[in-house]
Amino acid sequence: MSRVRLCGEDELEVGAVRRFEAAGTAIALARCEGGYHAVIDNCSHEDYPLSEGDVWPDLCEIECLRHGSTFSLLDGEPQSLPATRPVTVFPVSVEDGGVFVELP
């Protein structure tokens, strides 16, 4: 596992999502009411960046802008069609004012 700093703790507001490139991996980092969550920045239904979509912070879900599928930011499972496969979720930690992700 590789630990990578993505941003400062105060750089992302609740309900926001931002794309990061780390170790050759595109990551969508979102902030929900319960904290930060990171998923692969690619919808499992069709090759489209999840970071272009909306975050529903109260449900801790992200919506793919292209076809409207939503995914849980907690476990990556699709919450609506047309997506049927989960997206990869990465562990996130907040330390010393920074947001870090663990990559395989």
Describe this structure as you would to a colleague:
This protein has one domain: 3-layer Sandwich (Rieske Iron-sulfur Protein), CATH 2.102.10.10. It has no helices and ten strands. It has strands at residues 2-8, 17-22, 25-32, 35-40, 55-56, 61-63, 70-72, 89-90, 92-95, 98-103. The strands form three sheets. The protein has a four-stranded antiparallel sheet, with no helix packed on it. β3 and β4 (35-40) form a beta hairpin. The radius of gyration is 13 Å and the shape is globular. The termini are close together. The mean pLDDT is 97.
Descriptive labels:
0% helix, 10 strands, Rieske Iron-sulfur Protein, four-stranded antiparallel β-sheet, three-stranded antiparallel β-sheet, 45% strand, mainly beta, globular, 104 residues
Largest sheet properties? 4 strands, antiparallel
**Helix and strand composition category:** mainly beta
CATH architecture, by name, is 3-layer Sandwich
**Computed CA radius of gyration, to the nearest angstrom:** 13 Å
Separation of the first and last Cα atoms: 4 Å
CATH homologous superfamily (4th level) name = Rieske [2Fe-2S] iron-sulphur domain
Return the domain count: 1
CATH class: Mainly Beta
Q: State the strand order across the main sheet.
A: 2-3-4-8
Order of helices and strands: EEEEEEEEEE
* Low-confidence runs: none
**Which range best describes the helical content: under 10%, 10-25%, 25-40%, 40-55%, 55-70% or over 70%?**
under 10%
Mean pLDDT: 97
Oligomer: single chain
